[in-house]
C-alpha cells in the first residue's frame, strides 16, 4: 500500500454501495460539478502475473459508470448493455484507482457514458458503454 490517504484528500467511502463479490467499497469525491470514483486495490486482486486482474478493473468501471447513469436517469433502475474496455497499463496491487467519467448522451431509455481509470497521473483503462434505463410508465 502507498502512503496516500484518500480520506485526507476529500474522498468518502461508499459503504452503502459495496461492489459485488467482496471486491470492496468504492470511494467518491466531488470535483466541480461531477463525481470521481475510487477503489483501493488489494493483494487478493492480483492475477498470476502479479498485476491487478482485468476483471477487477472492469467490475470497478461497470459499477461506478453506473453511478453516472443513475444520476442521469434520476435514480431509475438501470442495467449495462454494452461495456467496452481498453487496458492501457498494468496496475500494481495496493494502488488507488480513480475513475473520471461523463455522460455523453442520454435518451428516454438509454444512457451513453465513458471514462478513464487512472492511478495518479497514469491512465490505466479507458472505458465506454451503454446502459438501459427503466423509467416508470406514465
Question: Could you write a compact summary of the structure shown?
Answer:
This protein has 138 residues and is mainly beta.
SS elements, strand count: 7
Relative helix content: 10-25%
Q: Please trace the helix and strand order, writing H or E for each element.
A: EEEHEEEE
From the 3D structure, determine the CATH topology: Thiol Ester Dehydrase, Chain A
**Poorly predicted tracts of residues:** none
Category from helices, strands and their pairing: mainly beta
The strands making up the biggest β-sheet line up spatially as: 1-2-3-5-6-7-4
Strand content bin: 35-45%
Oligomer: single chain
Q: Distance between termini? A: 50 Å
At CATH's second level, what is the architecture?
A: Roll
CATH class: Alpha Beta
| Rg, Å, rounded | 15 Å
Write out the CATH superfamily name.
Answer: Hotdog Thioesterase
